[in-house]
Amino acid sequence: MSAEKPNWDELFTEVVTSGMCTGCSACIVSCPHDVLDYNDQNGVYRPFHLETDGTTDHCTHLSCTSCTRACPRSRGWEGEIDMQR
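^ thats the sequence. predicted structure below, dont judge the formating
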């Protein structure tokens, strides 16, 4: 995961699709733009992005990192981000 501007795309790849996601909803609750929601198929809660066009331009355009900062599984990356400020 890049230390510069980790956003939903990177969180999804590094945490959700890898199986590290615990379904805690921290990313969804922390999202200030309300573009994340849950998929609860088969009783497994996993976050997904709501943009209808299938892109995550909203997060990228705004340089939003709220979801990655809130995720307890991405906590190791937060220190790298803060050191760059």
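The chain has one domain: 8-83.
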